[in-house]
Amino acid sequence: MEDVQNSKDDRNIDIDQVGVKGIRYPITVLDKNMGSQQTVAKINMYVNLPRHYKGTHMSRFVEILNENSQRISLQNFSGILQEMKERLNAESAHMEITFPYFIKKSAPITGSEGLMEYKCTFKGSLNQGSDLITMIHVPISTLCPCSKEISDFGAHNQRGVVRLQVRFTRFVWIEDLINLVEDSASSDVYSVLKREDEKFVTERAYENPKFVEDIVRDIARQLDDDPNITWFAVETENFESIHNHNAYAYIEKDKKKRPVEKA
User: What is the 8-class DSSP label of residue 260?
Assistant: First the structure.
């Protein structure tokens, strides 16, 4: 049968990324405590398309995904991208995998167990070199330092989310990034809390007030001290309980770039 995708295109325009988007697919990811974890991901896969080709072969993306579904991890991400380049005769390949990741978490006093869900994303590109980013969304709880300072009793608190992206030189565990973020909040968020736990959590937050500025700075300081992390972007958003807006802060740093010295 005629291969229309390989036919010549006369518009003389390169396409940066072409492929498939929004594939819902069961995958297996590495789990620090359990070895592996089954989850369902939303996957985007793209390659570049030179100007002289009319189209790419969309079915090959899904074929590659089928062949690698049981071994998707940070460790073999570059191998999948290389396979995409070879099978689709491309100069660059890109893939994004977003999935819910579950960790069993015990309440701080009673030890009651429940599953916490964290949204995770692996983003990778392979061109002249390779690039891989891990991104996590971590729910947190914060208590406002200003409210605590000016109030005769109590202080407003709220849930928030930290979105953390990192580049690294060696493999990094999702769980380690989550722990780093949660340790920087006023308090963790839990799926199961008894009354004794609620008392502990609210009192701990009261003794550990944090602005969004505090959280991104605390996380950035730890990442800056970690030689395995080469680049990071961290943002915190508070879903304010007494304001009609959210509070937000963001820090990004490429540790491979030397800072500019001031005169």
Answer: P
Q: Which domain, by its residues, includes 198?
A: 9-254
Half-sphere exposure of 191 (CA within 13 A, CB side): 11
Query: What's the CA gap between 234 and 211, in Å, rounded?
Result: 14
Count of other CB atoms within 10 angstroms of residue 61: 25
What is the rounded CA–CA span in Å between residue 131 and residue 128? 10
Q: Does residue 110 fall inside a structural domain?
A: yes
CB 186 within 8 Å of CB 209 = yes
Residues 6 or more apart whose CB falls under 8 angstroms from that of 153 comprise none
pLDDT at 75: 76
Domain count, the chain: 1
Q: Across 27-36, 126-135, 189-198, which has the greatest mean pLDDT?
A: 189-198
